[in-house]
Amino acid sequence: MGGVPTYAVPPGFLGITRRDPDADYVVAGIPMDIGTTNRAGTREGPAAIRRASRMLTDGEHPEHWVEPASMSIADIGDFDLALGDIPASLAAIQSQAGRIGHLIALGGEHSLTLPLLRALAQRLGYPVALVHFDAHLDTWPDNFGQAYAHGSPFYHALNEGLVDPRRMIQIGIRSPVQKTVMDWTLSRGATVLSAQDVHAATPAAVAARIQEVVGDVPAYLSFDVDALDPAFAPGTGTPEIGGLASWQVQAILRRLRQVRFAGMDVVEVAPAYDVAEITALAAATVAWEYLALLGA
């Protein structure tokens, strides 16, 4: 016997063993955890999502009839970070993402989206559309006194011109928020669909609204698991009641075939607060649905 025993090899997303970054679609973990809430703990999120993805490896997507694991996809492991140094970590994420064509990022907390958008906008040469599922706007100018944290990525993204605000839509918003923050977000041109808006509509209507806002330009999907109600995703740092159900998210995503997605992340999985892996499985399923959408 020789080589590395299988139990010592970190599991790839969907059991994928390909590791090179030249695949059409590249999965990478980003274990970012600045810890600016009372319930930090997203550092283990990527590993938990990969483990939960084992539930999704047997069979094709029942609507698109695509087997995501059979696509040209690699899992290159986790990005390197500068532990304890936020600006250096953001720069490291941007540098590593800049070398990847189509990235599926497993978080980690939401601050990681800013450097990913920086890398994508730099590669494309223009701002992208944004489809953002979340309980929170994440357009605060600071987060507990820190300029760069999980409550402010889209404040910076808008100010830096990384995202076209007229093609930015936020879905599932419902947390307490200062009126000045909401007014600033809307004044920039962003579209906000609250969780109550989604509940009062059909998935088809929500998907149609997303398509209408985004149009035909390249779009980025950022999915915070706290968009889901805590009943479906307890394992997250800032849970908010009244959120989306898992079936609603799936039904909306499956209707976004016309969106020209150029990358995505799923963030804020905190395994320490999870129950029976249901949050990690939800996050893994969002990434799986995304891949099936691309392969349809």
Q: Would you kindly provide a brief summary of this structure?
A:
Its cofactor is Mn(2+). By secondary structure, the protein is an alpha/beta fold.
Main features:
9 helices, 18% strand, 8-stranded parallel β-sheet, 296 residues, globular, Arginase, Chain A, 8 strands, alpha/beta
C-alpha end-to-end distance? 42 Å
Query: Rounded to an integer, what's the Rg over CA atoms?
Result: 18 Å
Structural class of the secondary elements? alpha/beta
Strand order of the largest sheet: 2-1-3-8-7-4-5-6
Tally of DSSP β-strands: 8
What's the mean pLDDT score? 93
Helix amount, in percent?
A: 25-40%
Secondary-structure element pattern, one letter each: EHEHEHEHEHEHHEHEH
**Count of helical regions:** 9
Give a description of the structure.
Its cofactor is Mn(2+). Belongs to the arginase family. Agmatinase subfamily. Keywords: Hydrolase, Manganese, Metal-binding. It holds the Pfam family Arginase. This is Agmatinase. With 296 residues, the protein is of the alpha/beta class. It has a single domain, classed as Ureohydrolase domain (Arginase, Chain A, 3-Layer(aba) Sandwich). The chain is 31% helix and 18% strand. It contains 9 helices and 8 strands. It has an 8-stranded parallel beta sheet with strand order 2-1-3-8-7-4-5-6, with helices on both faces. Strand 5, helix 5 (179-187) and strand 6 (191-194) form a beta-alpha-beta unit. The longest helix is centred in the C-terminal third of the chain and has 18 residues, at 278-295. The N and C termini lie far apart (42 Å).
